[in-house]
């Protein structure tokens, strides 16, 4: 309503404003279009190449084929990679929700000495790039012989996921009216039943949103998985990186077809996520936490 | 009659008091819910970090506690990685923030296709480093579409070199970082009450004055935060610097140096030392930006956010 009035107000302020604003508007939209053209160029280069028989220096490949996809499936052992990626992501989601949601309940509802310190502990992993704490963490995990296995990869991926759940769930729980819990207690509900029968149903949308975002982040997480994974515990991203970095062993098209498979699966995940979460709102909620 | 209750209460108070007084200060059994989370973070975040700090002071090849740091700062190749990282990270983060502002500003309010546009802007997040890197190598490469267009339009006489150098990494940082910065800034902008600007418009302020004296000051704390988070993203450019950059030369960023020391030379002590230097630089820059932010207007922006 207010926004409509604002744009209406723009038009009514007369031709002087529109004349000044117009080149700026064109410049802005031109920039957006240019960004999308480059983005499309990047994506289509890879997508077309993954279907190409041969493509050297011409506008369009000599012929199209789909055999790179079946090749990639067998030569990269894709089914095993997918299984590992799925296992890691699911365990990380479940554990980080189980650890994070109770913690965010306390942080949302209670005041206690040292609360700021606890908040800082949950904030630091968001503010420090993963590769920075990932190297000491991986060193430690190698020392206790957990790195190189699935459990090491899961533990490392939990480090940014638990704070992420806490930081997204705390504002969500804050907006649930505490009077509802008080009413339940007045009617004689014990703590367990307050949690399972009153709070849990109210928290389902928030938990779902946080869980899906953790899933997307974990599937896409490169740094920590790269530092801790062994040959049998690689996820899709890490396997892709190795195949590009040791280029020459595999055909370019084979790598590209795998990158397309990865991106397609990420997009499916993200489209599901966007059905539950509004990105701009989520960022606001998370940002307030970071700012506070 | 009036003194009787106090007499009965007093002895009881001595017994129940500790639990009661703790509960009054907010310490009771419900804090146990926090324990797994805090324990986990202490064990897997803080402890490895301190372990790394301690490890960095006990070098593998001897030479005293500060030997690793001395090696890092005396070797121009290693020392130079700090400059390379900052020279990539700061311009990329600034570019992403500065370009996002006018676009987010134009996209306020409701219009048709906004949801589609927002979704399109989120797409780069799904690309992942490898597809972005591959795409940039193919699209911007010597035989890529962009160079073909530029040559056919006679804008350049021979293909421009855009990958395997600074620019390749810069483009990859923009592609991955811009959507993120844009989403943050547009959510900050939606928190600023539009009626403030309309009030200025009725007083005769042009669009530039409205932006300069109303929106920008209210937005600048958000800009500072967005810059910090974009910089964190750009600071750890490890995969794209390896794939689209020139990892042993122009884009030998500090994360490559740390990885190389720890997992290729197996000098975990040196690797930890470089990570600690990385964390220190990171925190100094965030500290400076947040200090600058704390000196700005911090009150309500009058909007829903």
**N-to-C terminal Cα separation of chain B, in Å?**
56 Å
Name the CATH architecture of chain B.
Answer: Orthogonal Bundle
Per CATH, the class of the largest domain in chain A reads: Mainly Alpha
Distance between the termini of chain A: 30 Å
CATH topology group of the largest domain in chain A = MetI-like fold
What is the domain tally of chain B? 1
Kindly report the average pLDDT value of chain B: 81
Mean pLDDT of chain A, as a whole number? 79
Name of the CATH first level of chain B: Mainly Alpha
Report the sheet-strand fraction of chain B. Answer: under 5%
**What is the count of β-strands of chain B?**
0
Number of domains of chain A: 2
Strand content of chain A: under 5%
The secondary-structure class of chain A comes to: mainly alpha
Write down how many β-strands of chain A occur, each being a DSSP E stretch of 2 or more residues.
0
Low-confidence stretches of chain B: 1-12
Elements of chain B, N to C (H/E): HHHHHHHHHHHH
What general outline of chain B do the C-alpha atoms trace?
flat
What does this structure look like?
- The complex is a heterodimer of chains A (292) and B (305).
- Chain A has two domains: 2-50; 69-291, MetI-like fold (Orthogonal Bundle), CATH 1.10.3720.10.
- The longest helix of chain A is centred in the N-terminal third of the chain and has 36 residues, at 15-50.
- Chain A is built from 13 helices and no strands.
- Chain A is mainly alpha-helical and 292 residues long.
- Residues 1-20 and 282-292 of chain A have low confidence and may be disordered.
- Chain B is mainly α.
- Chain B has a single domain, classed as MetI-like fold (Orthogonal Bundle), CATH 1.10.3720.10.
- Chain B is flat.
- At the A-B interface, α1, α2, α4, α5 and α6 of A face α2, α4, α5, α6 and α7 of B.
């Amino acid at each position: 309503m207010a926004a409509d009035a604002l744009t209406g107000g723009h038009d009514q302020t007369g031709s002087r404003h529109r004349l000044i604003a117009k080149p700026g508007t064109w410049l802005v939209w031109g920039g957006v279009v240019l960004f999308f053209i480059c983005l499309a160029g990047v994506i289509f280069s890879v997508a077309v190449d993954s279907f190409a028989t041969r493509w050297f220096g011409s506008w369009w490949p000599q012929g199209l084929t789909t055999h790179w996809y079946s090749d990639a499936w067998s030569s990269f052992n894709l089914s095993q990679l997918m299984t590992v990626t799925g296992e890691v992501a699911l365990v990380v989601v479940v554990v980080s929700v189980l650890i994070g949601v109770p913690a965010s309940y306390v942080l949302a509802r209670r005041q206690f000495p040292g609360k700021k310190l606890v908040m800082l502990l949950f904030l630091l992993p968001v503010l420090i790039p993963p590769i920075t704490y990932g190297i000491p963490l991986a060193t430690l995990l190698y020392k206790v012989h957990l790195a190189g296995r699935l459990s090491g990869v899961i533990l490392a991926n939990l480090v940014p996921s638990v704070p992420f759940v806490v930081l997204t769930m705390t504002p969500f729980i804050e907006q649930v009216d505490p009077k509802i819990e008080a009413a339940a207690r007045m009617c004689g509900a014990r703590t367990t039943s307050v949690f399972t029968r009153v709070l849990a149903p109210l928290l389902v949308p928030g938990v779902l949103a946080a869980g899906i975002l953790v899933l997307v982040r974990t599937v896409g997480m490169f740094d920590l998985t790269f530092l801790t994974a062994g040959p049998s515990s690689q996820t899709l991203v890490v396997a892709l990186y190795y195949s590009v970095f040791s280029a020459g062993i595999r055909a370019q098209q084979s790598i590209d077809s795998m990158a397309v498979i990865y991106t397609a699966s990420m997009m499916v995940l993200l489209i599901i996520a966007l059905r539950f979460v509004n990105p701009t709102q989520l960022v606001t909620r998370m940002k307030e936490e970071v700012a506070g | 009659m009036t003194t009787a209750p106090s007499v009965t209460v007093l002895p009881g108070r001595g017994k129940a008091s500790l639990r009661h007084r703790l509960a009054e200060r907010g310490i009771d059994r419900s804090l146990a819910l926090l324990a797994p989370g805090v324990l986990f973070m202490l064990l897997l975040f803080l402890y490895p970090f301190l372990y790394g700090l301690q490890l960095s002071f006990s070098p593998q090849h001897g030479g005293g506690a500060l030997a690793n740091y001395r090696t890092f700062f005396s070797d121009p190749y290693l020392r130079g990685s700090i400059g390379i990282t900052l020279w990539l990270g700061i311009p990329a983060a600034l570019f992403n923030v500065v370009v996002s502002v006018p676009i987010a500003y134009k996209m306020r309010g409701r219009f048709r296709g906004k949801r589609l546009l927002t979704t399109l802007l989120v797409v780069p997040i799904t690309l992942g480093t490898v597809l972005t890197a591959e795409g940039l190598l193919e699209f911007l490469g010597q035989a890529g579409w962009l160079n073909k267009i530029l040559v056919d339009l006679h804008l350049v006489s021979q293909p421009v070199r855009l990958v395997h150098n600074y620019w390749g990494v810069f483009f990859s940082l923009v592609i991955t970082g811009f959507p993120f910065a844009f989403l943050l800034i547009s959510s900050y902008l939606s928190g600023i009450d539009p009626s403030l600007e309309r009030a200025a418009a009725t007083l005769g302020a042009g669009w530039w004055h409205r932006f300069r004296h109303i929106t920008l000051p209210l937005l600048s704390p958000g800009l500072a935060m967005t810059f910090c988070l974009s910089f964190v993203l750009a600071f750890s450019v490890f995969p794209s610097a390896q794939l689209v950059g020139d990892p042993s030369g122009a884009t030998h960023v500090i994360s490559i140096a740390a990885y190389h020391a720890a997992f290729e030379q197996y000098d975990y002590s040196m690797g930890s030392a470089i990570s600690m230097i990385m964390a220190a630089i990171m925190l100094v820059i965030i500290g400076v930006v947040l200090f600058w932010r704390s000196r700005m207007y911090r009150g309500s922006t009058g909007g829903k956010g």
